[in-house]
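Listing S7. Sequence submitted for prediction.
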Amino acid sequence: MGELQKVTPLPIKKPVITKTYQEEQATECSLCNDTEFIILDNNTVGYCECRKQKELQRRIKSSTIDPANMKVAFENYRIMPHNKKMYECVTEYAKNFDEIKGTQNNSLGFLAVVGEATIKAANMRERQQLMAEHNNFGLGKTHLQTALALDLIHCGYTVLMVNDADVIAELRAAQFEGEINNKIANMADVDLLIWDDLGKSKYTDWVQTQVYQIINQRYRSGLPIVFSSNEDSETLAEKVGGAAVSRLYSMCRGRWIESEGPDYRLGNDRS
């Protein structure tokens, strides 16, 4: 038998620890590992190039815009004779917001010619006639407000877009959770508050008080409000209170727009 040759064992290599698939998927920026900071050539800390995009994403998320409306824009708004004035007013407002926001009359409101409350109070025959002659639904108010919100968010402004029904429900919940002051402060402090369907909900004296506080704080701070309502000036005052509407009117002077026309959702106007 020949001699057994001595075999030299191969060196054991330590495994290279890499990120898991889940970790790699969770990291959006490989330069800063999502910290938004990087080391610069002079060994100082600076912002990563991804920071602007992440700030934009945070502003969009905090705006509470319906995710289904993220593709809404001025460019895909359907302009018709009865909503052309609304479109021109909002696009002008967006274009000149930087100058408008610092003025006394820095807000904008869309109202009905004949309020929903008046139409509901009429008898059936009158109601049908009023609805046919003074429709305020389906004019594209929410589309324009959403397009405005997204436009200003991309310009670096903080925007909060709320729906009346959601706001009132959240205010009532915040009352019992002891968070009412924080809720009001959140609505009072953003660069622009957009309030869709103002006056749609059932308003009690307590709700009127909270809504007045939000509007009054923005009025006193010189911060703009853009709102839409299916009520007219008188019926809106009955819903949200005369003091709140008085302040809104003062803030919206020159941009207090009453509109009506066919509801495009029902196919009444295909022009």
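Caption to Listing S7: primary sequence and predicted structure tokens for the chain studied. The CA atoms of residues 17 and 23 lie 12 Å apart. Residues 58-266 form a domain with the Rossmann fold fold (CATH 3.40.50.300).
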